[in-house]
Design goal:
By secondary structure, the protein is mostly beta strands. It folds into 2 domains: 111 residues, Jelly Rolls (Sandwich); 198 residues, Alpha-Beta Barrel (TIM Barrel), CATH 3.20.20. The strands form 4 sheets. It has a 13-stranded mixed β-sheet. It has a 4-stranded antiparallel β-sheet with strand order 1-8-3-6. Strands 2-7-4-5 form a 4-stranded antiparallel β-sheet.
């Protein structure tokens, strides 16, 4: 083992005021057999994020989920793109996410050491639940999915295969894998999706202390250090779609200035536990009704809503989920088998919502009668609510 860089010190709020992100240079020699990067700090005094840049550009991001990163000749810690060990100048990226007023003591060590990272173990293909039969029109089909989920490539605990198996067992047709500030997972998605019988959409959660956004599509890495208007423009330029995530959720609420609203908004996030709370809907209205989507924000068993809670439904032609999202053909339900409101041609169709109310954008309320009720001349986004204003379903 050869030490390439070692330092210790204290990051202070004054350091964060100068820049949230700090860079520590080190040189990788030719023929290096591997790298080990260790960042140790006092967790009771704050949160430090960890990332890496190599001579080719952005290599990956752990955020606050890891204190060690391994880069081998043909493998890498999840969250880091596997592209070998190019010689030249590298940088450790340290994000000063949260700091106590007295600062956070840290130690950083970078060593040249022969390492390899073992691949994850495949899991069995599960039995799918019966598919829900839904009305559709214009040659489109409603597909069920979840547009927000994490794996071990950021701060989730499951491998891509484990997550895909879980989503398939829950009846989903698609799942966006949106690990934080990295695209290291993208190269594995198509094969894993084929193994488990669903589409795994390439995504990334562009993550900062002032708000999160999901970028959908195989569009390369979006630089989270740039202003949010740049995320919107760059995603669109590369043919992707951007969604503002959980805009009214606690310390993850959206606080970024925007001159252009992105096309999608995660109106229904799994943290919306009391759906009588009109906060997410108020934000949606104020934002001008961008196309609504939902996300479980899955991270780990036991602590999170299951993938598909809520379920985002997209009316697709030829299974083109991103095309359906771009066209604004979405609906959201609390789960796969929950009451649902769909736009089918010129009609709105409420399914399994007998006794609830159809709520128009201007506030008109119409009773829903029967297991399947159709409504005409109802343009724009609509809700299905109970009498106490609990939201059951949303239609774009």
């Amino acid at each position: 083992m050869t030490t390439l860089r070692a330092e210790r010190g204290r990051w202070t709020p004054q350091d964060r005021a100068s820049s949230v992100w700090h860079y520590v240079d080190f040189e990788v020699p030719r023929g290096c057999a591997g790298l080990r990067i260790d960042l140790a700090f006092d967790h009771s005094a704050g949160v430090l994020d960890l990332g890496l840049i190599d001579p080719a550009g952005w290599r990956g991001w752990s955020g606050g989920a890891r204190e060690q990163v391994l880069i081998g000749p043909s493998s890498a810690t999840p969250g880091y793109v596997n592209r070998g060990l190019p010689a030249g100048q590298w940088q450790v990226v340290v994000g000063l996410h949260r700091l106590a007023s007295a600062g956070v003591d840290y130690e950083l060590a970078v060593a040249a050491e022969a390492v390899e990272v073992a691949p994850p173990v495949p899991v069995a293909v599960p039995e799918r639940r019966p598919r829900r039969v839904l009305p559709s029109a214009d040659g489109l089909s409603w597909l069920a999915g979840d547009l927000h989920a994490h794996t071990a490539h950021s701060d989730g605990t499951l491998s891509i295969d484990e997550l895909a198996a879980l989503a398939a067992a829950n009846g989903l047709d698609f799942l966006a894998v949106t690990d934080h500030n990295t695209v290291s997972h993208h190269e594995f998605l198509a094969a894993a999706g084929a193994r488990y019988g669903l589409a795994l959409l390439p995504g990334q959660e562009v993550t900062t202390a002032d708000g999160h956004a999901n970028a959908f599509g195989d569009i390369g890495w979006i630089d989270f250090r740039e202003p949010a208007d740049g995320w919107v423009a760059e995603a669109a330029r590369r043919g992707g779609l951007l969604s503002i995530n959980h805009p009214s959720r606690g310390d993850c609420a959206w606080r970024q200035a925007l001159s252009t609203m992105p096309p999608l908004a995660e109106v229904w996030h799994s943290s919306w536990l009391d759906r009588r709370d009109g906060g997410p809907l108020a934000w949606w209205l104020a934002a001008g009704y961008p196309t609504p989507v939902g996300g479980s924000d899955w991270h780990r068993p036991g602590n999170n809503a299951a993938p598909g809670t809520p379920t985002t439904w997209v009316a697709c032609g030829d299974s083109d989920v991103l095309g359906g999202l771009a066209a604004g053909r979405t609906a959201i339900s609390a789960g796969y088998d929950a009451p649902l409101l769909l736009r089918v041609g010129d009609e709105l169709v409420a399914i399994d919502a007998d006794g609830a109310m159809l709520v128009c954008p201007h506030g008109r309320r119409t009773p829903v009668r029967g297991a399947r009720a159709s409504f005409v001349e109802h343009d724009g986004p609509h809700l299905i609510e109970l009498d106490d204003r609990t939201v059951l379903a949303i239609a774009a």
